[in-house]
Amino acid sequence: MGFPVNVLANADDFGYSASVNKAVLFCFENGYINSATLLTNTPGFDEAVQMVRDNQCVKNIGIHVNLAEGRPLTNLGDAFLNADGCFNLQKTGKASSFFTKAEKQALATEISAQINKGLSQGIAINHIDSHYHLHTLPGLFNLFLHTAGQFNLKMRLAQTYREGSYLKFWYRRYINSRVTARKLNYTDRFESVGHFLLQGRFNVGVESTEVMLHPDFDTAGNLTDHFEAETMVNWLNYLKQLPNN
């Protein structure tokens, strides 16, 4: 099974758990995806790395930088953590958050540590994105852009279509222009599967598009998207419609 060469179907959350890893590998083997981003501070990390090493079909691997859940890899300090020492999304994920110089340095160190952990495994890493899209937030965007440049890694764009708010749309256009100006963009567009299908992007075009999935197996053993089950159903139906599938 295949899809247009200018489409990158990325599996987020690779390394999250055993069931997610199994589903991501299954999707690679069956041609449902051609890219994935790896969590480095979650229980399934080591297994995911081994899957990359053992399976040539698992390719286009990036780092899914996680400042939203689980424990940090560095001594980040209490400002971003809950009482259990895990990331507090209410502190890291506020769109309006701006951080002190010391806090920015601590966050930059953590972002770099997560990337370095992936690189240290001897697997090719070529792009980054983030859990819950935190890299697009005003308080974090510059840290991610600078770090992507330091490591010479491509970076996921913010959504390239308008979703309800013109203010968000123009903000996203602005930060995307900064990514593309530095030639760090992973693709030319980033869309949800639903929007991609709504636009009828069924043919090879000039621009490249990244779509995002979250493969997993449900309790009945069925392939699903653990963020929105309908996404996987719609994606597989789309693939079945393509020539030679």
Condensed summary:
The protein has 245 residues and is of the alpha/beta class. It contains eight helices and nine strands.
Labels describing this entry:
single chain, 245 residues, alpha/beta, TIM Barrel, seven-stranded parallel sheet, 9 strands, 15% strand, YdjC-like, magnesium, ChbG/HpnK family deacetylase, hydrolase, Glyco_hydro/deAcase_b/a-brl
Report the sheet with the most strands, covering strand number, pairing sense and barrel closure: 7 strands, parallel
Distance between the termini: 5 Å
The top level CATH class name: Alpha Beta
Q: Can you tell me the number of structural domains?
A: 1
Q: Any idea what the CATH superfamily is called?
A: Glycoside hydrolase/deacetylase
CATH architecture: Alpha-Beta Barrel
Tally of separate helices: 8
**Overall pLDDT level:** 94
Q: Provide the spatial order of strands within the biggest beta sheet.
A: 5-4-3-2-1-7-6
Under CATH, the topology can be stated as TIM Barrel
Organism: Mucilaginibacter pankratovii
Keywords: Carbohydrate metabolism, Hydrolase, Magnesium, Metal-binding
Pfam family, one: YdjC
InterPro entries: Glyco_hydro/deAcase_b/a-brl, YdjC-like
